[in-house]
Amino acid sequence: MDHIELSLTQSLDHCIKCNICTSACPVAAVTDAFPGPKYVGPQAQRFRHEGQPVPDASVDYCSGCRVCNQVCPTGVKIAELNARARAQIVAERGLPFRNWLVARAGLVGRMSCGPHAPLLNFGLRLAPARWAVEKVIGIHRKAPLPASSTYTFRAWFRKHRAPTTARRQVAFFHGCATNFYEPHVGKAAIAVLEHNGFEVLLPKQQCCGLPLISNGDFKAATSAHEANVQALVSYARQGIPIVGTSTSCTLTLKEEAPEILALHSEDVQAVAAGTYDIFEFLRSLAERGELKTDFRPIERHLPYHQPCQYRAHRLGSPAMDVLSLIPGLVLEESHAECCGIAGTYGLKQEKYQIGMDVGAKLFAMVKRSGSDLALCDSETCRWQITHGTGVASKHPIEILAEAYGLEL
Amino acid sequence: MNYETIVIGAGLSGMMAALGRAERGERVMVLAKGHGSTHWAAGCLDLLAEAEDPLGAINQLVQAKPAHPYALAGVAALEQALTRVRGVGEAAGYPLVGNAGRNLLMPTALGALRPTAFVPATMVNGEARQLGDGRPTLIVGLHELRDFFPPLIAANLRAQGYPAEGVYLELPPVERSHDFSPVVVARLFERPAFRAAIGRQLAVLVRKGGYARVGLPAVLGLYNAVEVVRELQALTGALIFEIPTLPTSVPGMRLFQAFEQALTKAGGRIQIGGWVLRGEGSGSHLHAVFSEAASREQRHMARRWVLATGGIMGGGLRAEHTGVVNETALGLPVRTPSGRSDWFQARFLDEAGHPVFRAGIAVDAQLRPLDAADQIVYTNVAVVGSALADCDPIREGCLEGIALATGFAAGQL
């Protein structure tokens, strides 16, 4: 038993059965299929023993949003228990092809990104094609799939000419979404970092492994994380911060992969300790008075949703803190637990409606704001918000780049 | 980022202190490990249980026990805090009713009568003096809702001389088939069709039984409970009241929401999920605290701090098997009965209470923490609520009273 496993097991005994987690759980609020974090976490865990069959498969309906951990007054690691319980089910019963596929964000991204992207995007907008995908694979016909990019972020970066005035270095972890679907998010991040005097380095990297973890494919997730650690550890050891715009990727590097997959080598710890979400990084600059504040006013009132995966960093609201420095900009916080997509959860045929019901509160808030733009730090959440509201969505780094007046 | 005041703990005392400071124009953040005491408690305000006139008794108590939190905060702070908390409820459409000079006696989920000074308007029709007017009361529940047994409640009320009967209602058709926690049922009561169906059943029962009052579990909606009560009264012609349930407490959640609204409106921020592990100071000045976060601690800076982490139940104090009681966030010195053998009375239900529950942090008149030699540990920290020494809030029945009074005082210092 590794020390994380020990602390997970021991945290069971801190559960006083107050049901605060179940009361806050956005999934249990909208469906019976998930009886709530207390039951599938600290309670069912007492019946999970090595070599014995899994007592209850409803843990598969946990979306992994980690709201339970956040509200628990006694510090039970419920989300981690659930993630490991799901992997136990996968180990016992195998991984369905659909989950195998959606868990491989890097592979899917690589196949769909390129000059053929417009054709693919067009094809995936056709109802019969989506119907077929639902029937054959099990991805819901209405689920928000991202539009692939005609070029990768890495290809753009290779041609990008950086200013020569940089004083310090950061390493950028772009993640699959920025590389294959939304290179503009990465461009905005590079522009903001360079504007603040950083030379941006681009380490070799692959998918952070989060979709593999949340689909219970721990073997593949472990090799993904080990490969990333190998590629990133030299930066961490040199004290070069590893900064990412995808908040769930950075959380995976910092905590989810080490804790859930039980990887605790010194290299893993060094990478975890050296990784930052971009707004966490920018906020720490601002706190030290090192963030440039030559902002143009942006006279706008925008809805902002902090993704559950960002709240799981347990850092408060770094994007709100930094964007509040922009004159004129007013952000309205969603106060919604989750958008419902939870990475790949809301794509699945049997879970799509749950995801939409979970997101209903957020969608209503965005629509009520009357804004034509919503801000959110996580890509799948942005796609879900746009899907649920028809309102365009951007990463907060794009607004920051705009406020600096940076050409992208 | 840079806050003038950071309040550690999101219970009543912390929210009260944060609101006070935010309303003075400060940049304020509440930093809390999770949801807590509000969600566990009945959502009523206990000032002092063992007195008909709590305010009168508190006036005597502060003379007799100068180290008691009420004495430190002062009776004036308590009275102003009560005015403020009622304003918070009022603004959220959730009035708190009662009188600091006379305790109400409210039925519990066991049918016992519990003294408390203020209750939400949704509960007040269940007050025992009203139940004793000779007209019968009906207690209803749902089989699906756990830990709420109307026949048991009614039997215990009858045993105390109050005419009452208890029955179960039929659950109106809903898409759910299991797990009816108080919060799940409260969400159902947000639906007009659901409460109309409940109202129809109640109307029939009231007509047949001639009940003057109907008591239901405190699950009548999360956001519009006063409206739900009004609607059910109109449908049945009887007075409706809520009885607190086991946690998670819906009335407690409503009270938290009311404070959350008020604090947000005043410009304050709340960070839930930030478990404070330690502080960092120089001399008698605390300049940073560190909260647990992914892969490394988060550092928080503020000019002034309020420690509102609760007592042993809330997690602010931790009793170790080695015989020490620790203050968990900042490592402040705790006043504790000397050895572990002195923690407890010989009898479990001893009327004097167990000494360990009086453990806590000693403070000066400005609520600043003191060490064993009565020296101020940090001049820019105020300690509020159940973390304070010389008080056993649950036994004395003053949990909310001291939380509000000391929280209010820390908000004004």
TrEMBL record, chain A:
It comes from the Bacteria. Gene3D superfamilies: Alpha-helical ferredoxin. GO terms for biological process: anaerobic respiration. GO terms for cellular component: glycerol-3-phosphate dehydrogenase (FAD) complex; membrane. Residues 6-36, 51-82 form the 4Fe-4S ferredoxin-type domain. GO terms for molecular function: 4 iron, 4 sulfur cluster binding; metal ion binding; oxidoreductase activity. Signal peptide: none annotated. InterPro entries: 4Fe4S_Fe-S-bd, 4Fe4S_Fe_S_CS, Cys_rich_dom, G3P_DH_GlpC_su, Helical_ferredxn. This is sn-glycerol-3-phosphate dehydrogenase subunit C. Keywords: 4Fe-4S, Iron, Iron-sulfur, Metal-binding, Repeat.
UniProtKB/TrEMBL annotation, chain B:
One of its GO terms (cellular component) is glycerol-3-phosphate dehydrogenase (FAD) complex. Residues 5-377 form the FAD-dependent oxidoreductase 2 FAD-binding domain. The keyword Oxidoreductase applies. InterPro entries: FAD-dep_OxRdtase_2_FAD-bd, FAD/NAD-bd_sf, G3P_DH_GlpB_su. Keywords: Flavoprotein, FMN, Oxidoreductase. It holds the Pfam family FAD_binding_2. The keyword Flavoprotein applies. It comes from the Bacteria. GO terms for molecular function: glycerol-3-phosphate dehydrogenase (quinone) activity. NCBIfam families: glycerol3P_GlpB (TIGR03378), PRK05329.2-5 (NF003726). This is Anaerobic glycerol-3-phosphate dehydrogenase subunit B.
